[in-house]
Amino acid sequence: MALEQDIAKLIEASNDLTTIVDNKIQDIDSKVLSAKSTVDGYISQVNNYIDSARDKQSHFRVTKNQALIPNADSTFPLNWSGGFVKSAKVVETVTTGVEVDQRSALAREFLQAISSDTKYFAGSFKIWELEYYPNRRGDNIGTAAYLMFQYLRRPTTMTVGAVVKHIKGVVPNGFWCQGLEANQPAKICGGSMAHGGRNHYTHCHPYVNGAGKPETETGIIQVALPAVVTGDVDLTKKQWGQFAYLGDADQPAYN
């Protein structure tokens, strides 16, 4: 009888201990969740501060002719070098002050990419269509080609971007074509560039990786508003636009 009582007491004590442990676990879980909520709140505050600071940056353009004004012969955008572009032509001049329903579908598509499909926006610009070779041709058929470019120094963090639409052929990548997708609507392409040593430079040209393809298999893209600007622009928020140029005294700021 005494043994049975001892066993009963042991079971009761065990149950009490289990209850205590369960309660303690619940208490710990509650404190962990509370602490996690507090930490998440701090992280959210930090992220909001970073986003706010990022949006308050000043961005100035270090490349010329973002509006893609033609050269004297109207054969290529002024101040841009051709790379392995076979031919180039203006396909649209997008002008502010035009009623939305009176614009072409192409103009609206490019404006929608930068959240500017309204009657008025910053300023007019041109959309160019570039036909390009898949590689460097001839003895260099195995080497990637590259598209139009400008030389620039890179002493600080910068952002390269453009509004680009792929039409056909090998999809270019890198620099102002970074993130371009085949046969999709016009979109903002590009990304950030680290300074790389303060005394380095770049030509900011996208690459065409069509090694081995015959030169007759040309590609076509349409492009507007290409530029490299100082600072880190959040391209995921469609914040690309027209930036003031810093450089030559005889160069209008918004060309």
Task: Give an overview in words.
The protein has 255 residues and is of the alpha+beta class. It has two domains: 1-56; 85-237, no CATH class. Helices cover 25% and strands 22% of the residues. The protein has two helices and nine strands. The protein has helices at 2-55, 105-113, and strands at 85-94, 125-132, 145-146, 152-153, 158-168, 187-193, 201-202, 207-208, 219-230. Strands 1-2-9-5-6 form a five-stranded antiparallel sheet, with helices on one face. The chain has a two-stranded antiparallel sheet with strand order 3-8. Strands 4-7 form a two-stranded antiparallel sheet. The longest helix has 54 residues, at 2-55. The chain starts with a helix and ends in a 25-residue tail after the last strand.
Mean pLDDT: 89
- Which percent band covers the strand fraction? 15-25%
Question: Which residue ranges are poorly predicted, with pLDDT under 50 across at least 5 consecutive positions?
Answer: none
Sheet having the most strands: 5 strands, antiparallel
CA radius of gyration is 29 Å
Residue share in helix: 10-25%
Number of helices: 2
**What is the spatial order of strands in the main beta sheet?**
1-2-9-5-6
Number of domains: 2
What distance separates the N and C termini? 101 Å
Apparent shape: elongated
Provide the structure class. alpha+beta
Using DSSP, what is the number of strands? Answer: 9
Instruction: Name the helix and strand elements from N-terminus to C-terminus, one letter apiece.
Output: HEHEEEEEEEE
